[in-house]
Amino acid sequence: MRKKILIISGDPLSINSEILIKSWRQLSSSIRKKIYLISNFSLLKQQLEKLRYPSDSIRKVDSIDDNVESNVMKVIDIKIKFNDPFKVSKEASTKFISNSFKLAHKLALRKDVMGIINCPINKKLLRKNLGVTELLASKCKVKNNSEVMLIRNKSFSVTPITTHIDIKSVSSKLTINRIINKSITINSWYKKIFKRKPIIGILGLNPHNAELRKDSEEMRVIIPAIKKLKKMNFKIFGPLVADTIFMRDYKKYDVVVGMYHDQVLAPFKTIFKFDAINITLGLKYLRISPDHGTAINLIGKNKANAGSLLNSIRFINKYGL
Questions:
Q1: DSSP for 156-173, written as a single string
Q2: Could you name the CATH architecture of 1-142+283-321?
């Protein structure tokens, strides 16, 4: 039984049609056969024509059980009416994305599906402005905040303990159990996929780790979590000082865990640019996305970099279970 790869085309007002077709043209026929795109057929066709790519490179199918020739992209049509393919309303986009994820989640639970890749999405279109990490964790009924956003390339990964929340809320969301549960998820995933324990570095929250004041988050939450993880025989170190770790010492670790989103994502993207993918760990299936946004300033210009989506597809093809 050949397992399938599901790709959600994502935000209709984006570079997604461009990176999809650019990635497709670089894939082997063996990978192409596995891919089913969840999209709006008419919208995708019109956007590809605008970019001067042949519209006969896509074909509508009824389900992932339909097998067609490998040199065309198989599209499961999400039937939403878009009046203009380049002036898409928020209401239509929200409905389209909601329906796409409902179908993808349902299909991803099947044993013949490797997992989901979703192309970039404006988070304002998601329920309560959550990120996709939180959305799918909710659909999978993940408990104890154990889902993990892992930004990864072949040499290094980062993870934020808190994800898409305001800075003012970070401290109140940091708990010993949250750090422990997410570290367990990372450790288990590395052992399952790469057959080894990862070396994990944990950052402090405050400048200079708050000089380890007794009332600091480092002393109350982060250090107690690290001590418990060490007792569980994890290869874990910290709290590391955030303002210097990304100069050189990050190379000592497989994963650096930060306390909030931009603490680790901003330096990671500065160093590695588009050489990264976003993986959600702890779900009932593997979910990946390119590690960049919708890039609305590049729509229709045929200048988008498809590298991250291409790496996402190749990763899921290699490691999808």
A1: -EEEESS-SS-GGGHHHH
A2: 3-Layer(aba) Sandwich (3.40)
* 300: confidence class by pLDDT, cuts 50, 70, 90: confident
Percent of the chain residues past pLDDT 90, beyond the cut: 70
pLDDT tens-place string over residues 75-126: 999 988 877 777 878 888 889 999 999 999 999 999 999 999 999 998 888 8
DSSP state of 291: S
Please give the C-alpha separations between residue 249 and each of 246, 254, 308, in angstroms, as whole numbers. Answer: 6, 11, 25
Fold of 144-282: Isopropylmalate Dehydrogenase (3.40.718)
- HEC-encoded secondary structure of 60-80: EECCCCCCCCCCCEEEEECCC
Q: d(Cα 212, Cα 17) in Å, to the nearest integer?
A: 49
Give, for 25, the enclosing helix (H) or strand (E). Answer: none
Residue the block writes with tokens 């988008």: 304
The amino acid that residue 154 corresponds to is K
Kindly state the DSSP code that residue 219 receives in the 8-state scheme: I
